[in-house]
Specification:
- The protein has 226 residues and is of the alpha/beta class.
- It has one domain: Rossmann fold (3-Layer(aba) Sandwich).
- It contains nine helices and eight strands.
- An eight-stranded mixed β-sheet has the order 3-4-2-5-1-6-7-8, with helices on both faces.
- A hairpin with a 5-residue loop joins strand 3 and strand 4.
- Helix 2 packs across helix 3.
- The longest helix has 16 residues.
- It is globular and about 45 Å long.
- The chain binds adenosine-5'-triphosphate (ATP) and magnesium ion.
- Magnesium ion binds next to helix 3.
C-alpha cells in the first residue's frame, strides 16, 4: 500500500532530529526491558495538551519502521479523539465499538500506509465516554489487543480531568508519562504521578516534551528513565 499523502506517515522524515530522538526513545525503552518491547504501553500525562497523542503516534511509527514487530496504535481518548486526524482516517468504528464488543479488532484496526502499523481510531462518540471504562470491558479489549499485536501503544486522556486513564493504566504493562516543559506546573505533574501510583501503574519512562521551549516550530523530546 502506498502512503497516503499529507499524513503523519509521510511527514515523519527519518532524517530529522525529531525522528532521531524517537529512535533513541525506542532504544532506551527496549534497553530497560532487556531488549523486549513493553506492551501494552500506555501514553498519558497529567493535564491537557502535553503531547500525548503526538508522542504515541511518533513512537508507534518508529517501532513499526525500526523493528519487524506488528504495531497497533489505539486512540482511547474518547473525550478528545485526535489520532484519526494525524493519520487522516475516519473517526468511526474504533475503540468505542471494540470496548462495547460490537466490532472485532480485525474490523476496526485500520491500515495507515505504514506496513506494520495499524491504528484503532476512537470510534463513534458517545455522550458519556467514561461509562465505557468499566473494568471488565476495558480488560477484554486490552487482552485482545495484546494477544493480536506484537506491540500495542495506547493514547489516553489526561489523568487529572478524567478517571478513564486510572482504569486503563492497570491493564497496560507500563506507562510513558509525557510532560510539556514550561507549561505544566510542578504540583500538577506530581498529582498525575500520584494518581498512577494509586493504581500501582509502572512508569517505564518520562518524556519531557518541548524541553527547549521552542514551540511550535520544532519538536524537542527528551527521555528520562524511571
Ligand atoms: N514538542 C512539540 N513541539 C511543538 N508542538 C508540539 C510538541 N508536542 C506537541 N505539540 C503540539 O501541541 C498540541 C498538543 O499536542 P497533542 O495533541 O499531542 O497533546 P495531547 O497531550 O494529546 O493533548 P490532549 O490532552 O488534548 O489530548 C498539538 O497541536 C501538537 O501538534
Ligand atoms: Mg491527545
Amino acid at each position: 500500500m502506498t502512503p497516503a499523502a499529507g499524513t503523519i506517515v509521510t511527514q515523519f522524515d527519518p532524517e530529522t532530529p525529531l525522528a532521531i530522538e524517537f529512535r533513541r526513545l525506542f532504544s532506551r525503552l527496549k534497553y530497560k526491558e532487556n531488549g523486549r518491547s513493553t506492551t501494552p504501553l500506555l501514553v498519558t500525562s497529567a493535564s491537557h495538551g502535553e503531547g500525548k497523542t503526538t508522542t504515541a503516534a511518533f513512537l508507534s511509527l518508529t517501532i513499526a519502521r525500526q523493528s519487524d514487530q506488528r504495531v497497533c496504535l489505539v486512540d482511547m481518548d474518547l473525550h478528545r479523539p485526535r489520532m484519526h486526524k494525524l493519520f487522516n482516517l475516519p473517526l468511526k468504528s474504533g475503540s468505542t465499538e471494540l470496548i462495547q464488543g460490537v466490532a472485532s479488532l480485525e474490523s476496526v484496526a485500520k491500515e495507515t500506509g505504514e506496513e506494520r502499523l495499524r491504528v484503532v481510531t476512537a470510534g463513534t462518540m458517545v455522550r458519556s465516554p467514561s461509562s465505557l471504562f468499566e473494568t471488565d470491558q476495558i480488560r477484554a479489549a486490552m487482552t485482545t489487543l495484546a494477544e493480536t499485536y506484537d506491540v500495542v501503544i495506547v493514547d489516553s486522556p489526561p489523568l487529572l480531568p478524567v478517571s478513564d486513564t486510572m482504569v486503563l493504566a492497570p491493564e497496560a504493562e507500563a506507562v510513558l508519562f509525557v510532560i510539556m516543559a514550561g507549561k505544566t506546573p510542578r504540583d500538577v505533574v506530581v498529582r498525575g504521578k500520584t494518581l498512577l501510583a494509586d493504581v500501582n501503574a509502572r512508569i517505564a519512562g518520562v518524556v519531557l516534551n518541548n524541553s527547549d521551549g521552542v514551540l511550535p516550530y520544532y519538536y524537542n523530546y527528551k527521555y528520562y528513565g524511571y
